[in-house]
Amino acid sequence: MNLGQLIKLERQRQNIKQEALALGICVPSYLSRIENGLVIPSEDIKHLILMRLNISADTLTKRPNEENTTQFKIRFKQVINSRDKELAKQLLVDIHLHITEHPLEADRLTLLLLEARLMLMLPEELEIQRNINILVDFKKEMTIEQLFYLYTIQGIIAYQDNQFSQASHFFKEVFQLIKGYRMEDWEMAELHYISGLSLLSESRYILAIDYVKEAIFYFNQEILIDRSIECLMILGIAQKNSGVLKDALATFEKAKDINLKIESSEFNGMIEHNLGSCYSLQLQSDQALQHFFNALDSKHNPEDKIVTILSILKEYHKNGDLQNALVWLEKGLETVQYVGDSKKDLYTNHFSVYGAILLENQVLIPIFKKSLDYFEGKQDYKHCMIYCNVLAKRLAETKQYKQASIYYELGFHYHLKQSKVFSWEEL
To answer: What span, in angstroms and rounded, lies between the C-alpha atoms of 6 and 50?
Structure first.
C-alpha cells in the first residue's frame, strides 16, 4: 500500500471524516487526491496530516520489530488449526500492538485481516463489523491472498448470523478467486471445512460431504484429532439428513470411539445428541431419548443444552406424550432466557410454535406468522416449510379450510425455495 492509502486506512480506523482531517491543512478534495494516490503531498502537509492522526513522522522510516508478518502468519496457522482461544487472544494483542507501533507498515491490510479473523473466534467480546466495513473499502487494493482472507471472514460472519445462502456465496467466491493460485494446505483445509459446515446448514448435503472429506484428509494427515472429529460430525449429520442412516450411525460411532481413545469429553454432548437424532429417525424412540439425556448430562452451558431440549420436546410430541412434551417445553422456555442473543430469537421462535400447539392456543396464525417471518428472514426455508404444513394441518382439523389451503400453498412455495427451484416442473 502507498502512503495515501495508508493515511486513508488510518483515518477510517480512527473514524475521522476527510473534512476534519483536512481542516487547516489543505482542502478536502486535495486530501482525497492524496488518499487515492493521485498526488504526493509536500513534506509539510504530510507532517501535519500524520500529526493529526497521532502518528510520529519517524514511523515512515522505523523498522518493524522482530515479530514480522511472516511470524504472525505462523502463529495464526497454529491458532486456526487448534481453535485455542487463549492463543487467539494473545496473538490478537500482539498484532494490535504491532499495528499501533507501525501504523504505516506496507503489510497493514494483511495484519488487519488476520486481526479480524481472530476476532471472529471471540465474538462474545469483540465487535468487528465496523472493522470489516473499512476493509471492504480497500478491496481494490488487496492481493488474492488478502481477498481470500476477506471473503472467508465475510462468509463466517454470514454463517454466524444464520445467513447460510450468503455464507455459501462468499465461500464460492473464494474458490473462484483462487483458481490457479496456490494457497497453503492448511488454509484450503479450513476453507473446505467451513464451506462444508455452511453447505450443511443450507441443506446441500452431498456437496457438504464432498467438501468435508477434503478437510478430513488434511486433519488426519496432520494428526489434528479434534478437527477430524469436527469433520466427522459434519459428515455424519449430512449423511443422516440425506437419509443414509446406517452410514451416519457408523460415522458418529467412529467419532465416539476416537473421542474415548483420546480421553476427551469435548464432543460427548454433540455425539450423543446426533446418535439420538439418528435413532429418532429410525423410530427407535427409547434409544433416541436415552442418547438425548446422555447429551444433556455432557453439556454444561445453555447454548449447547437448548438444542437437545428442543429435540426431547419434539420426540415426546411425536410420540403423542403431551404431558412430557409440556414439561420439556417449560424447560426450553426457561433455558432460552440464558442463551446468547444470536440464538435466543431462533429457539424462542421454535418454542413459541410448539407452545401454540401444545397449549391449544386459539390465535395460531399470528404466532406462526411471526415465526415464519423470522425463519424466512434467516433464509431457513426448511423450517418455514415444516411450520406452514403444521399450521395448515391444524387449521384443516378445525375446519378452517380456506386458511389451511393458503398455508399448504405457502409451504409448497418454501419447499421450492428450499430446493432452489422456481417451479414444480424442476423438482
So the answer is: 11
Q: Rounded to the nearest 10 degrees, what angle do helices 164-177 and 185-201 cross at? A: 150
**Alpha-carbon torsion (164, 154, 196, 283), positive or negative:** negative
CATH 1.10.10.60 fits domain 3-60 = no
pTM for the full model?
Answer: 0.80
Return the C-alpha cell found at 323: 404431558
Contact predicate 215/192, CB 8 Å: yes
Instruction: Render each residue's pLDDT in the chain as its tens digit; 427 residues.
Output: 678 888 888 888 888 999 999 999 999 999 999 988 888 988 889 888 988 888 876 666 555 554 578 899 999 999 999 999 999 999 999 998 888 877 777 788 899 999 999 999 886 656 677 788 888 888 988 999 999 999 999 999 999 887 888 999 999 999 999 998 989 999 999 999 999 999 998 889 999 999 999 999 999 999 999 999 999 999 999 999 999 999 999 999 999 999 999 888 889 999 999 999 999 999 999 999 999 999 999 999 999 999 999 999 999 999 999 999 999 999 999 999 999 887 899 999 999 999 998 987 778 899 999 999 999 988 888 899 999 999 999 999 989 999 999 999 999 999 988 877 666 555 5
Backbone angles phi, psi at 267, to 5 degrees: -100, 5
Dist CA 275 CA 250 (whole Å): 10
Is 285 in contact with 315 (CB distance < 8 Å)?
A: yes
Supply 327's cell numbers.
Answer: 414439561
